[in-house]
Specification:
With 301 residues, this protein is α+β, with helices and mostly antiparallel strands. It has helices at 2-11, 22-25, 33-37, 62-66, 96-104, 119-134, 153-170, 173-176, 209-213, 238-242, 287-291, and strands at residues 16-17, 43-46, 49-52, 72-73, 81-82, 85-87, 109-112, 141-144, 192-199, 219-222, 225-229, 248-256, 259-263, 265-268, 275-278. The strands form six sheets. A four-stranded mixed sheet has the order 5-6-7-8, with no helix packed on it. The structure holds iron/sulfur cluster (2 copies). Ferredoxins are iron-sulfur proteins that transfer electrons in a wide variety of metabolic reactions.
């Protein structure tokens, strides 16, 4: 039992938001997925700050799973595993991302003694299995937990002993201590993409803000093309938040990964004489000269 207590003590850790959080990098970040996921209203977002009200925090870990950038450190205490199965509980609903990650880490069934599962679980399981089916991986099954609920006094104490041992066995670092970066689902499916970036080349002014601020290096420039490596996208919204032209959209699309290429040309601005890149070869002025108020005195004319 003392072994169990020391395990429980070491599992009681506060959550911490690290510097990968969009809010700490991008003043214009609108990300609030962690706060939206928290059922206990323990996370408060104000401009670039996120405060955790520890008295309200229930250590459920929903924020850890929801963060697209794996910026929240902590241990998920609300999930229990029995060997290769996730134990069903009506107190939480896993996300598709979460089930996919567990599947890749060896979980292949949901164990329950109440079938059918509630509708939210069923929906998530169905969506997860659709993705697994698409990539020819075995589906997550539902298996019955055949435990006898009526126990003698001796049986009760024996079962307590069994549960304690089981807890120690299941609270293993491999299952519970998922490292911060391991909550990025894209890491587990290197040949697939979960999101597709759509760039509106009519609106894009080639300001490079998306290239600068995308922490996952989705945008690159190579051989006269602006490219998006869609498989790296985690849907953090930094690019859509930073793009002042509203030229970027990120849509959910699970498929074999592909790189999207946009051809650009380099022209010389007819007004200021400076070289600029554009997706419209016929464009004669750079964006600054093009957008300048014609009533202002031009330093170049
Ligand atoms: S979900 Fe992650 S990136 Fe978004 S605000 Fe919360 S900690 Fe920051
Ligand atoms: S492409 Fe946009 S949404 Fe995707 S990871 Fe980069 S900044 Fe985030």
């Amino acid at each position: 039992m003392s072994l169990l207590i020391s395990w429980l003590e070491c599992l009681h850790t506060d959550i911490k938001i690290n510097n990968a959080c969009s809010r700490k990098i991008l003043l214009r970040s609108t990300c609030s997925r962690c706060a939206d996921a928290c059922r206990y209203e323990a996370l408060h977002i104000s401009s670039e700050l996120i405060n955790i009200e520890l008295e309200r925090c229930n250590s459920c870990g929903e924020c850890i799973i929801a963060c697209p950038l794996s910026a929240i450190e902590g241990i998920l205490e609300s999930r229990e595993f029995d060997k290769g199965s996730l134990l069903y509980s009506s107190s939480f609903v896993p996300s598709v991302k979460e089930l996919l990650i567990y599947k890749k880490r060896g979980m292949d069934a949901i164990k329950t003694n109440s079938t059918p599962l509630n509708q939210n679980w069923e929906d998530v399981l169905q969506q997860t299995n659709q993705i697994l089916d698409q990539i020819d991986e075995s589906k997550i099954k539902i298996i019955n937990n055949q435990e006898d609920t009526y126990l003698s006094r001796r049986g009760f104490f024996l079962s307590l002993q069994k549960v304690s041992l089981q807890l120690v066995k299941t609270m293993t670092p491999a299952l519970w201590k998922i490292k911060v970066n391991e909550w990025k689902v894209v890491r587990y499916f290197p040949d697939y993409q979960f999101y597709q970036i759509e760039l509106d080349i009519e609106k894009c002014t080639f300001c490079h803000m998306c290239l600068t601020f995308c922490s996952q290096n989705v945008f690159t420039i190579e051989d006269g093309f602006l490219q998006t490596a869609n498989d790296r996208c985690v849907n953090c919204s930094d690019c859509t938040d930073i793009c002042s032209e509203g030229a970027i959209k990120v849509k959910e699309e699970f498929r074999k990964k592909r790189i999207t290429k946009y051809k650009f040309t380099t022209n010389t601005c007819q007004t200021c004489g400076i070289e600029f890149s554009t997706f419209q070869p016929e464009k004669e002025k750079c964006s600054i000269c093009y957008n300048r108020n014609p009533e202002w005195l031009s330093p170049f004319e």
